[in-house]
Amino acid sequence: VTVHRRPSSGAAVVDAKPRGTVLAGRPQAGGKWIRLRQEPGCVRVRAGAGKHAKTLVRRSRVVFKKLTKGGCAAAGFTPILDSSTCEAAALWLGLADAEARLSARADAPEGCYVEEGGLFLAASGGGASAGAAR
Fold this sequence. Notes:
Largest sheet: 5 strands, antiparallel
Distance between the termini: 21 Å
Oligomer: single chain
Shape: elongated
Radius of gyration: 16 Å
Number of helices: 1
Helix content: under 10%
Strand content: 25-35%
């Protein structure tokens, strides 16, 4: 989905999010747009009109959990592998640091994790994840 600077299709494009990315935001322009919470920009909810309209963003019930030990799969969760979802999870969990930084640690947990109060996203982790989504 395309991220625009303002809630307008004519506004400058500032980013693009892959399918399945969890976004945190508030409705704008009568619910036709979502203003993102964790970064600048807005995304359109639907494109087109009538029977040709396509839903671009939908409300979902995502559950995030901060794991204290073990991996995501063992806990029945899916690891968080992108920065937007990692930051949305941090906001949802009420963490003080909601800006994901890339970790190059070879022994980093898989995906999104919290360490010493900081939010990190493993560049290539194969260990047990400390952050998960279901």
